[in-house]
Amino acid sequence: MKKLQTAGFILLFLVTLYLLASHIFDNAASGPALSSRQTGTQTGAFVQVADISLGKVEVHNFQRMGFTKGFIKFSPDSRNLAIGTENGELMLLNLKGQVLWRKNMGLGKLSALEFSPDNRYLYIGETSQQGYLLCINREDGREIWRQSSVGELGVNIQDKTYPGIIAVRSDANGMVYAVGQRYIRYADGRNEYRGRIYKFNAAGVRQAIFPVDHNLDAWVSWVSVDAGGSRAAFGTANWDEGSTNRYTDSMYCLDGALRQILWSTEIPPAPPYQNTTMRSSPEFAPSGRHVAGVASDGRCFLYDGQGHELWFRTISQPQKVGGVYINAVGNYVHLTEEHAAFTTGNTYNRANWQLPTPVEHPGSNSVFVFDLSGKLVSRYKLGGMVEQISGTEQTMAIAIGRNVRSRDVGVHGLYLLSLPDARLLDYAATTGPCVGSAISPDGRYAAGVEAPLQLDDGQVIGAYRLLLLQRN
Amino acid sequence: MSVRDVWEATPGDTLVHKLDVRTKVVLLAGFAVAVILIDSPRTLYLLFCLTLALHILARSSVPRWRILIIFVLLGLWGSMVSQALFYSREPRTIVACLIPPSLPVLGTLTGGVFVYREGLEYGAVQALRSASMLSLGLLLSWTSDPRQLLKSFVSWRMPYELAFMLISGLRFLPVIFQETAVVLTAQRLRGFEPLKALVPRRLIQTAFQTLFPILARTLRRAATLAASVESRGFGREARVTEIKQWPASEQRLCLGVFTAIILLLGLKILDVLQFNGLFFIPAWRDLYDVMKVWM
């Protein structure tokens, strides 16, 4: 009897140790694991290859504006998938879902991820006391070089207003373009923005910086470069634009050397908004012939590469309903040589995003596809916040997250739509919101990141995990 | 193996047994500081596994493993369960609801009782600290002669009275457990089954019926010990028996551990200063990165 008891204690002890170890060391995936609760996709056009846990993260709810992030990107040769997690883990996977290497970013918070066009390097942007841009060897995860942005953007460690590289792009010549940003909110309610655009060569030598001798006094969180590296465009988003601001235009286009502003344009605000803001656009077509953007107020547009406006469309006009202004925010752009896709997100109350809205905006949570003449080709209503869009010439992978109005969790998932007809090719349902999406350049693989969500009754649904799909 | 044999130190031929008792005390002290300074669950888990590996190295017997496991399990699960229920920091994630707030009386009174995921994790980390110390402490007590411990303390100029009390406490721990076993056996022989029913009233009754005889016997033993040491001139200046030479290699090891702990303390201070936005050395970024993951 005593031996049996001892054996029981030892067994319980071993199980406890195993559970502890699996919880503690579960921050990153160890290999492909198909979950039994997910049977795959809905139409069978894509099949699920892997379902990988990305570790434990803080669980957010519907009352939060920002949400858990997942950075995912396929390599240009469509052979690997890079993932950056909320926990600072960086991983490279093959297309079977096996982890080739992983590393922890340490003190920095991951804020951007991009492959070099020759597939040899991964560029990582981080937000930390030094705001580094890191170049990582794709083969083994070894760091090749790093460049900080603190020299230009400054830091205040007491207030924790850190510089960060929040967007990275590369061109066909191997040049890297990075947006450095630092945002300071003062106790009296004032905002200060500091931005800089850097250009490095593949060896990490800085080739140019814009502006040369001062910081952009605007919120800049995006840069787009044409494939040849001859033009770079960025938008601004100043919420409390002052009369002393130097960069008051809504969109700027620089030459490839980042020496001069080729053109810029001020887009007048759409009432009841006081300013025009662009957070995740504009986007250059690879040829550089066109540039498209979408403003938060729900207007989208196309310019030619020389800065001439081709057309403006409103995809979610702010509406006054029940005494309050509601609007569906314009978010992302996917621009090909033939079409432009624009996305809208959740419906918000103009007075305060947390206040309720009488109805959902009819233009909310959708993707709109236009041809280059400005004709609406198709529209698809997705039901939840478009958290990310990634696409090729024929396919778009769209991550659908929370709908903070309807709170319908059934809309979460990775949607695969065809271009230009916005037809649903397939749909991988996720329990929690889908917060990141990627599609391989050859269109054969798609990936999405699910995040956990706490419902109003306290129940937690979903998990922080990666879904990898393969086209059938 | 009798109860007393399980608790008392036994001679052995392993590396752990051969180590000078002063080395073991220094390592134990260093370990205690390290587990307090470290917050990373990974490192704490690995340190705990290291203490288990030392038990394997010391060839601890099955009854000793049994005791260690019971204590560790009680500590681990006790801490995890209590923290899971009473965790008050934010953010916290509900993983189960034991009493819904809508339940009449109890729900209204408590506002609901939930199991919080962050509480479970916090409890596990805290328990790993105590489990590591428990494991290493038991290893020290099972592999070190108390007389050698006393001599070591005295050689380190600890007041004789204090050292004597410390070692007496350690020495009498096995005796108390043995006496508990005797009391429980005696009660069983009289037909008393202390754990037959797990109702609170009966458990309290059992506790009184068990603890009073143990307390009485302990007091009697303490009085005998006091009379004995008094009669031998306790507290007077007395020549202390020579303690054997502390091997130089072990002294160097202890110096290394001491240096490592000082370094660890320095790193921890740096990390705390950085975390609170008070002081940051940009050139040491790599070090901060390592600390973020492992400390």
TrEMBL record, chain A:
Every Pyrrolo-quinoline quinone repeat domain range: 88-319
Domain of life: Bacteria
InterPro entries noted in UniProt: PQQ_rpt_dom (IPR002372), Quinoprotein_ADH-like_sf (IPR011047), WD40/YVTN_repeat-like_dom_sf (IPR015943)
Transmembrane parts of this sequence: none
Coiled coil: none
Pfam families associated with the record: PQQ_2 (PF13360)
Name used for this protein in its record: Pyrrolo-quinoline quinone repeat domain-containing protein
Automatic annotation (TrEMBL), chain B:
One Pfam family in the UniProt entry: CbiQ
Chain ranges passing through the membrane: 21-38, 67-87, 93-116, 162-186, 253-270
GO CC, one annotated term: plasma membrane
Primary location: membrane
Domain of life: Bacteria
Keywords: Cell membrane, Membrane, Transmembrane, Transmembrane helix
CDD domains: EcfT
Signal peptide coordinates: none
Membrane topology: Multi-pass membrane protein
InterPro entries attached to this UniProt entry: ABC/ECF_trnsptr_transmembrane (IPR003339), ECF_transporter_component (IPR051611)
Subcellular location: Membrane
Keyword Cell membrane: yes
Protein name: Energy-coupling factor transporter transmembrane protein EcfT
